[in-house]
Amino acid sequence: MQDSYKRTFDIDRASQYRLIADPTQNWDLVVIGGGATGLGIALDAVARGYKTLLVEQADFAKGTSSRSTKLVHGGVRYLAQGDIRLVREASVERGLLRRNAPHLVRNQTFIIPVYTYWDCLKYTVGLKIYDWISGKLTLGSSVFISRKKTLEALPGLNGKELVGGVLYHDGQFDDSRLAVNLVQSILENGGSAVNYTKVIALQKDHEGKTRGVIIKDAEHQVTYAVSAKAVVNATGVFVDDILQMDRGSASKSICVSQGVHLVLDKKFFPSEHALMIPQTSDGRVLFAVPWHEKVVLGTTDTPVEEASLEPKALEKEINFILETAGGYLTLKPKRSDVLSVFAGLRPLAAPAEGEQKTKEISRSHKIMVSPSNLFTILGGKWTTYRKMGQDMVNRIEKVLGWKHRRPKTVDLRIHGSAPDVNWSDPLYFYGSDADLIKERMNGSTGKWISDSLKIHKMQVIWAVEKEMALTVEDVLSRRTRALLLDAKESIRIAPTVARIMADLLKKDEAWVERQVDEYKQVAQHYVLEKN
Ligand SMILES: Cc1cc2nc3c(=O)[nH]c(=O)nc-3n(C[C@H](O)[C@H](O)[C@H](O)COP(=O)(O)OP(=O)(O)OC[C@H]3O[C@@H](n4cnc5c(N)ncnc54)[C@H](O)[C@@H]3O)c2cc1C
Ligand 1: which of 41, 175, 238 to mutate, most ligand atoms within 8 Å of CB? Predict the structure, then answer.
């Protein structure tokens, strides 16, 4: 078992495509979808020695997996719903992820402000149960704190009628950075993964069994037929599209629920602790979480009909978050204070009886096997992505009669893993790669492209050379988090980023202009007030 990663490597799409184009390759697994779920499955399979290819139609984590609340958590809310099994599973996974990706997952203290003595008792006892469920993998014990201590710990909190607070521990992370590091880990362990590659059809044999996929490389508009012993549908809110390819028609297997987050300057909540409001006016949970020197507020739970890769926040969701947060903070945020607004779609396994509200649907995952042996996975959380991967590969082995191979991801360190993390270093999230980037920064003439977001030219180069970034949006939204941290600032630096990328990718001025235009089209939806 290694403690940290010492090496770095180039990720090169061309070499991945040479493998894909080779007709003699017979993959054990093809995984469709490069979000948390697909990456977890591919890494588990690769670690067991299965020859695995993952294909993602857009960028890795372009969908839901870059739009989470950034928590690696057991789920206090699921405890309140009585879903002890899920809380136990997620608490164990939280501990494993913190151990295997310590450069991305930090131990975050949360405080629940309480306003009645009954709530003091309820949350103190509830969180002790939460600690107990995590067992040895707990991140720390919960404790009741006085009104005075609560206000000292949460300087932005409105103290009106406050009785005290309950402090507990959970994990906090960077979702798309974890996705990028998982891609790197898949490749380092002998697997293959490509972005901008869409599955457009399934291949079947004469018995109607799934034997591979037809994929299209969006960069070069080339189509390939890929044979595989097992095909996995891990496409989140798009699972029904792949099921439709399988069956010709498909009943609805998921419910889509939208969650919105607002990002604010730290002055609105200048605390190292996160705030957790367990019950808002409509029974939801609201968090204010410190993240990359800003504060993330969210989220909502709104059923939506259509799945999209760029979901848009609804006005009522934005107003709900601003109003609810305003009730707890001394400095009340206005629309004009919002640095970024982002929305994500939860792929929830459809409930048996159609009456349930989306916030009550279990976040547990569910595996389905079609008569054609297409393996589909629904639901789940980022926190449990490893376990989901393990369960899926176990299931494939069982259904296809493969000899069981022992799962290996419990102890597998994820790329970038480094034991000592300086969280105040602006490049901390690169983990063991940070020193390599800094060495190259010192030798380069380029400066910070954004002083306020601390983004350096070398990070753009790194993203292209080592992290398979192909577009300005890949760099500004998922390799760095500029789009989510300050959308206007990200639009300002987009032309500079495009020019650096064009030099590396040998693109012309027309490409630069197109990239900047396309980026602005996407980023304008993250800006609330255009001025
Ligand atoms: C608002 C919100 C907050 C959340 N907060 C948390 C949290 O704090 N902690 C936590 O643990 N979990 C959280 N979750 C849950 C977690 O984010 C999701 O469970 C997880 O990201 C889902 O990952 P996925 O891979 O299943 O889906 P996705 O990330 O959507 O990935 C599916 C991928 O499949 C690709 N795809 C689709 N069709 C094709 C095709 N034909 N060919 C190739 N690729 C295709 C898509 O482009 C997409 O990238 C949150 C979810 C939401 C919505």
Answer: 238
